[in-house]
Amino acid sequence: LTPDGHYIHGKGIKPDVTIDTPKYQSLNVIPNTKTFKVGDDDKNIKTIKIGLSALGYKVDNESTQFDKALENQVKAFQQANKLEVTGEFNKEPNNKFTELLIEKANKHDDVLDKLINILK
Fold it and tell me: Which of 58, 61, 94, 111: disulfide with 32, CB 3.0–4.6 Å?
């Protein structure tokens, strides 16, 4: 079966256990020409929240609203990564954010880890 459950040439097996790929591994790239700040509402803000959550920051992953809680987490991210602390998500934080998510995806295989835990 393909990951979305389709058979190839009428053949395939169904897995006993399905393991979802972490959300952060399938995020769209956020244009680094944009600046996001408190009061903004944009689909890219949800992407920021999912990514920050994957990096260990406490954020609401569901909303497309840039609120004070997200601003505080963006400030924490900026401070932890020695960036100018403004609370706005612009080119510099975006570049570091993308770099860290790629690094995380390359270093850590969440699907493999879940599979190993199931097999134990």
Answer: 94
pLDDT above 70: residue 1: no
Q: Which domains occur in the chain, in start order?
A: 23-119 (1.10.101.10)
Instruction: For 7-34, give the secondary structure using H, E and C.
Output: CECCECCCCCCCCCCCHHHHCCCCCCCC
Tokens representing residue 98 in the block: 């993308």
Average per-residue pLDDT for the chain: 90
Q: What is the DSSP string of the chain?
A: --TTS--BTTB----SS--PPPGGGGPPPPPTT--B-TT-B-HHHHHHHHHHHHTT----SS--B--HHHHHHHHHHHHHTT----S-B-HHHHHHHHHHHHHHHHH--HHHHHHHHHH-
Task: Give yes or no for a contact between 35 and 89, defined as CB atoms under 8 angstroms apart.
Answer: yes
Would you say the C-alpha torsion 27, 28, 33, 36 has a positive or negative sign?
negative
